[in-house]
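Task: complex structure prediction.
Instruction: return structure tokens for all chains below.
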Amino acid sequence: MHSLSRRLLVSVSLPLALFFGVMMLVLDTGFRDLSRRSVEEVLDRQMVALIAATEPRPDGGYAPAMSNLDPWLETPRSGVYAQIHSQQHEWRSPSSAGLKIDFGKPLQQGQRNLAYSMVGYDRVAIESRGIQFEGSPQNTNVLTFTVAVSLGPFEEQLWRFRQQLVGWFIGLMLALLVTLAALLHWVLGPARRLEREIHAVEEGRSERLGGGYPRELAGVARNLNALLAGERKRVARYRDTLGNLAHSLKTPLAVMRSSLHGAGAETVSAEIDRMSGIIEHQLKRAAASGGALFGQAPVDVAQVAGELRGTLVRVYASKDLVIELAIAPGTQFIGDRGDLTELVGNLLDNACKWCRSRVRLAASADAAADPRERLTLTVQDDGPGIPAEDRPRVLQRGARVDEKVPGHGLGLAMVQDTVELYGGRLEIDTSPLGGARISLRLPGR
Amino acid sequence: MRALVVEDEAALRDSLKERLVAAGLTVDVARDGDEGLFAAMEYPLDVAIIDLGLPGLSGLEVIRRLRAARKAYPILILTARDNWQDKVEGLQAGADDYVVKPFQFEELLARLQALLRRAGGWATPELKCGAIVLDTRAQTVAVDGAPVELTTFEYRILEHLMLRAGEVISKAELTERLYDQDFERDSNVIEVMVGRLRRKLDPQDQLHPIETLRGRGYRFALPRDAAS
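Output:
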């Protein structure tokens, strides 16, 4: 029930079904009434004709003159049957030949009875009347006329009527619902567009929502745009502030260090290192966004890697190394550009420090993987590698496996922190090149 | 070698200047971006050290304008913000290396010397030209494996000539790059120094490491070793 149009359709079709149901019930009752009355009329007509045609017979019984008899009564199993009962005699119409019909008990003068019964598999209505012809002695010769009419044709008519009724109503209801669905589709068009545009902003295909929304949604779109712009500005300002904070904390540290002389300089210098390490770590943690900012474009991995390679090749110009990039075309990181630059920068920097001459960065995306682990980034080198027993330790903040090359531990711990913020994974093992291989799994495509 | 330090923090600037001078460089200083840009445009520099977080014109902008004006000497960035985006931007703007604050002075000096070497076309810290070997890290000179005692000033002249071995360097340029701005300039001093260098490096007068090109200047004439 998470769709407005489905809710509307359901809430409209329920009363509609109820309305049609009641209508059908009313019409059905009316038609059944009508059909019962026409059964009674047929019975009455047959009864009157039978009574009128009946005359005494020489054997003392009573029977209708064959010439006046209704043809229905002569045809066997026609569905119309009759019986004339007197004390001495009983006449049955030829139509009832071979049938077992319960015509009921004889009646007194003036009595009438209407009943329903079965003849074979056929339902019949049975009417009986007790009649004494004029001129007969009192209570001596009361005749009971009984006529039975099969209900088959009437019931068949009723069924046909019901079928038509249901057919028409269902057709009508479907037509109504289809019309309603089409109307809803049109009415909710702008809402769907809003959803589409928000999705586009989410995926970074668009910076803001478009205009031209109907009055009811224009405010929502406007406020969302304002929120997006405000959020982007806020994050930029936040990072700027953090950068300024780093500058104003670390410049005095640089002054302190540069004016160190004589005894105790080593100790103070080590403490300055620690302080600046803490500042660096905490500010970087605070600056890492750990997720795609709403409305932020996915980051092209090849571009970031290319820029970093250009930087590192110059920084390590005296080391004669080669940085190979193997990045599947179109590989993108879903998240913050600054975060990706930090991750790849730290990994490549470590690899450049440790390698003899070769560093390789590979990146590819796997659409079938968990969304938070679709992008695989691998950095490897041909240096000494990280021994298995040291691997858990290099991920601890500030740990340095080899003190000779500064900054190894801190960089990798920072990478680990950022990867965790994105819900990704970091693995360390041995590269086919001979050195360390660090693999990251991150959100991407 | 003449270096420019553009740094707004006075204490850091002064201490940098003091230690760079002690390491044998001639140092100019500037307090902000505008002053730094002026100095970097006007002085005959070998290297510039520029802080990124400058008041006024930003460090990045100074670097961009210098490169746009075809100033080709190496530039070292000082930055307090240790993030890769800044480093990438700095190097894309035209800088050659970076040092993150708070730095060890020795590291800064090593990077500076590496930049100077690379600018002269040298890959290693040892400059080898035939029999003469100059070690920029230890600041020592040896001829045929035997160490030669040089004064600071003699060493600086030799280093300058050897870093750009094969190029002609005028007396005026040497004076400018080896003296402070406010030092009394006297080109006779250079002539005397070069004469003393020749005697110390080549007592038998066989190697002829330093050529004099009349009216144009000096040239370090021994070929560079292929390995370096």
